[in-house]
Amino acid sequence: MSEEMQELYDFGPFRLDASRRLVSRGGQALPLTSKTFDTLLVLVRNHGRVLPKEELMKTLWPDSFVEEVNLAQNVSALRKALGETPGENLYIATIPGKGYRFVAQVREVAQPDHDILVERHTRAELVIRQQQEQEEEEEKDAYGPFAPRFQNPARALAPARAPLFPWWKTAAVALAVCLVALYFWKAKATVPKDESAHSLAVLPFQSLTAGPDDQHLGLGVADAVITKLSNLRQLPVRPTDVVIRYADPKVDPMQAARELGVDSLLSGKIQTSGNRIRVTVQLVRVRDGRPLWAQTFDENFTGIFAVEDSISERVAQALAVTLAAQEKRELERHYTENIDAYRNYLEGRYAEFTFTRDGMNRAIEYFSHAIADDPAYALAYAGLADAYTTESDWLLSPREALPKAEAAARRALTYDDNLAEAHEALAHALLHEWRLAEADREFHRALLLNPNSVTTYYTYAEYLASIGQADQAIAQMNKALTIDPLSPEVNSFLAWDLYLKRDYPGCLAQSRKSMQMLPGFWVPHLIAGMCRSILGQFPEAIEEYQKARTLNPEATPPLTGLGMAYAKAGKRAEALKIAHTMENTASQSYVSPVYIGLIYHALGERDQEFVWYQKAYEDQAEWLLWLTLDPIFDDVREDPRFRELVQRVGVAP
Asked: Which of 40, 140, 517, 543 reaches 20 to 30 Å from 244, CA-CA?
């Protein structure tokens, strides 16, 4: 292969050289078999796109019949060679029931001779591309959405009639055309099209006016667009709770896009004046900063719904997403026509994303105002349900919060039974009420309605862990990571599932990964502390709990963990002091009884422990969902009181 036709790709620390059939890391070649290399090359050429298993097998074994297990073995060997550990999706994500996607950022190393070659063969390029496009259209008509991606360029060169030149001239011309065709076919196969399925981030729109309401509006409009686009099955969209950290106007949008690991970025500016609103948006391709679409909307504020519809539809068009009829209806759908209800809903979403005591209380207030303005606003009821479930076992007793969450979710469904957010909110409330079979049905309905919902995947994983299916819970977390691979929250929840599975090295590695993604996030420190405690590494555990406590002084679990670690390390006085402090706090504001019981558990005071567990049972405490899986309870499992508690809660035996 000539220097001109060389293909070079960089991804992570690796470089792939197609011409030399070599993958290297820091100059060190990886030992790959020929077929494993071919598998990697096809995945890298199509990075970001889900490759169906059938397409992969036909590409890798074009003239042979092979079973799916051969492909699985190839992918497994490739993951091992790239250094992926079980549960990781640094490079290759499995899309259950479909195929594989190469999820790492890929940079094609430019070849300076390409432009010269294209200029030299412009006429041939036009002829060949015209023939290829005509054949692709014919095949698309024949196969519909299952038309094969890779076409055979040789068919486009088959002569339609007898040659008019001497055979040797004909052969020379044919050879030249074949070489040109081969080059352009390879270029077409290796360079991802804009039409391929993209991952997208919608950053909070920046306010050009000084009022705090406009800042909230910018996030709210972005959230509304995210909600609409998340219903498109072909378009993974980063959720709002991930992009909110990029709301600072000083953030470089392209840097944010690279950190989020997306192919495309939608950013915008928003400005209000009286009853007028101006929204300026731009969609860009991340790998080269190329603008794909931009527009300015200047409307009365009541026209904000039409603006959101238009933005969502134009983004889908610019990314060449083929919309099913139902998806098109979702883009055009308005959850309310009441502008005051909409404003209150946006304020509620903004407050909810703060995940603070004050923020959650304000979220409930705003969602309630939105419902008062529009009593049929299903999405506001779903938001209210989520807020109550979040407050459960934290700010409110579950016995108080969960019935309110369930009632709000069910009311949402009376107005819109096809609202995925409402089914997920109901499922989550039912799970925490220990009504597991009902929760399972609602989770399945939510995922059927919106298979791109990261929130549903990780709350469903919560359910699976509660019934003892740790492996299936991890599989659901990995599905969430295929949609949002760089979310510190999702990575932390995966660490929790690995902890429940007793994979402590995996849990610690996953926790470190989440810490690196968002250094100010407290949850991975909590989970790392739990792992360290189980492993008997009490000084390290205490350090992790103290870090979590510093990052979020309002959170109770880090204080509980600290008390348990002190008790296990022989610092009984310190542990008792924390337990008594929490008991005093519980007399003034809500503290989940299970957190106090866990400290007495670590102290070995069984009678006191079960007094608090009984209170936790009466409260429907969330942690009791993990009774049968959490290794914390290993030394008390044979206690008849514990077995009775497990039976009453109804979790997996």
From this structure: 543
